[in-house]
Amino acid sequence: MALHESLAWLEAQPFATAIAESGWLFPTIEFVHVVALTLVVGSIAMLDLRLLGVSRKDYGVLELAAQTLPWTWGAFAVALCSGVLMFASAATSYADNMPFRIKLILLALAGINMAIFHVTAYRTAHRWNHQLPTPLAARIAGTLSLTFWIGVIFFGRWIGFVG
Amino acid sequence: MSVMQRLSDALAQTDGSVAIASAGWVIPTVQAIHIVAIAIVMSATAMLNLRLAGFIGQDSSVRRLANSSLPWLWWALPVLLATGLVMILGEPARELTNAYFWSKMAMVLLAIALTMVLQRLLDDCPYREMAPAKRRATRAISLLSLAVWLAIVFCGRWIAYS
After folding, report:
1. Which pLDDT value is given to residue A52?
2. pLDDT tens digits for range A115-148
């Protein structure tokens, strides 16, 4: 199968075998990944909880978004790079790993949810910037986002527990 | 046999430890909750400490950022403690006989102390009204605090590899 061959090719690359064979490279990359993902999920949760009207109510939604989004995207780039490196070190087994597959689906759902929010409710955010309760669409987006990202953490942690 | 080894063996024989170890889902679930709580601590502390150190958001209020971040940090700590205790009970030797674990615990105490000092400094006097020497001290403590939190995550992950 083409996909399997591509993954086997990836796994055979010198950088991938170096990560797989080194005693310290993988844990170090994993450490970077953990720091990055905590910043991704933490910064997203700040905005989600504001969209739900739970916390940071003294911040306008737009102001808080301007403060958190650079963290979200910067940390996401680091998490993605470190994640790709770990994936490459054992690409064929990760591809067969069920928690890993579920994690990718949840990441996609989180992205779709964010995209929908940005082209709908967020467009009019200047009108409900300080309004409480926030519009239903914003509360739905915040709830879904929290659910998907906590799911990403759960299944991400589970990857290492499934052979 | 070391004290910690004996303690680990004794803990491993308790009903609680056996129950956690035999239910395969408990440890990964508790670890995931632990990571969610770390996400709250790291995002709050990174934003506040980098602001105090002067790297970001010079135009925004320190007090407002501190008031919105620090309560989350303090509430995440009991969650980290509770989930950490379940992990210790489930796999005592993995933690208690591990140098990374004890380094991590020492640094957690240091990080809590540094955060309390920062909170006290900010409560005493608004950041923009601080004398230059006090402001420099606040910056230094912020950077040290951030470095210690990063080292805590580092040791936390390396517990699994030693």
Report:
1. 96
2. 999 999 999 999 999 999 999 999 999 999 999 9
Tell me which residue in A23, A27, A46 faces B157 most closely, judged by beta carbons: A27
Nearest 5°: the CA angle B79, A114, A107 is 65
Enter the DSSP assignment of A51: H
Tell if the CB–CB gap between A55 and B68 is shorter than 8 Å.
Answer: yes
Phi and psi of B27, rounded to 5°?
-60, -50
Please indicate whether, in this complex, the C-beta atoms of A27 and B31 are within 8 angstroms of each other: no
Alpha-carbon distance of A81 to B162, in angstroms, equals 25
CB-based contact B43:A42 (threshold 8 Å): yes
> Full-prediction pTM beyond 0.90?
yes
CB A102 within 8 A of CB A155: yes
Q: Sort out which chain A residues have CB atoms less than 8 A from B39's CB and list them.
A: 37-42, 45, 153
Q: Which residue of B has its CA nearest to A54?
A: B68
ipTM for the whole complex: 0.94
Cβ contact A158–B32 (<8 Å): yes
Report the residue of chain B nearest A149, measured CA to CA: B36
Nearest Cα to A155, choosing from A116, A123, A110, A92?
A110
CA of A34 vs chain B CAs: smallest distance (Å): 8
Q: Are A147 and A51 in contact (CB under 8 A)?
A: no
Q: In the structure, what pLDDT confidence band is assigned to residue A1 with cuts at 50, 70 and 90? A: low
* Interacting residues of B114 by C-beta distance below 8 A, sequence separation 6+: B141, B144, B145, B148
Lowest mean pLDDT among A30-44, A82-96, B20-34, B123-137: B123-137
* CA distance linking residue B50 with residue B144, whole number of Å: 11
Provide the pLDDT confidence category of residue B127 given band limits of 50, 70 and 90: confident
Please tell me the distance from the alpha carbon of residue B116 to that of residue B83, in angstroms, as a whole number. 23
